[in-house]
């Protein structure tokens, strides 16, 4: 098996996305604290829609879409917005609990890893199937242990 090539741009983009996710959870939590979790989700997705409408024309010109034929988009792919709305409601509630921002994100990361490993294992939602390795279980255990330290480490 050949070693994986490290894509610096992709790694930096993922790191930046994680930082933005933290900021987003905090800001949505503040909206929820003032107006409720459902209000937070409505505001987040409303401003996201406006931002997308402003950014998409610029992005479209910059990337020039390929002329390659496109496959039909599976119906389930459109439910990402539903998952996003529910995620905002749940994180907006959790961040305003004793978990605070760090605990909410720690458990959120654990949930993401559990789902991602299941998706890889069973090829959910069109993802290529991948055999899970011992390193995956070790990584999950370390993430769960780290989450526990973040949440209960100061007790």
Question: Would you mind describing this structure in some detail?
Answer:
This protein is mainly alpha-helical and 155 residues long. The protein folds into two domains: 60 residues; 76 residues, no CATH class. It has five helices and no strands. Helix 2 packs across helix 3. The longest helix has 28 residues.
Defining traits:
5 helices; mainly alpha
What is the average per-residue confidence, as pLDDT, rounded to a whole number? Answer: 90
Please identify the oligomeric state. Answer: single chain
**Computed structural class:** mainly alpha
- What is the helical fraction, as a range of percent? over 70%
Structural domain tally? 2
Record field, number of beta strands: 0
* Low-confidence spans: none
For the biggest sheet, the summary is:
none
Helix and strand sequence: HHHHH
């Amino acid at each position: 098996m050949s070693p994986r090539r490290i894509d610096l741009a992709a790694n930096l983009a993922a790191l930046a996305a994680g930082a933005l996710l933290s900021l987003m959870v905090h800001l949505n939590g503040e909206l929820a604290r003032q107006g409720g979790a459902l209000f937070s989700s409505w505001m987040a997705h409303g401003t996201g829609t406006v931002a997308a409408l402003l950014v998409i024309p610029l992005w479209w010109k910059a990337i020039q879409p390929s002329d390659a034929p496109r496959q039909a988009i599976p119906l389930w792919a459109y439910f990402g917005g539903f998952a996003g709305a529910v995620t905002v409601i749940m994180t907006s509630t959790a961040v305003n609990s004793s978990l605070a921002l760090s605990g909410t994100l720690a458990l959120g990361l654990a949930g993401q890893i559990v789902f991602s490993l299941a998706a890889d294992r069973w090829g959910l939602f069109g993802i290529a199937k991948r055999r899970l390795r011992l390193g995956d279980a070790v990584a999950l255990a370390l993430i769960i242990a780290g989450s526990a330290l973040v949440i209960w480490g100061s007790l």
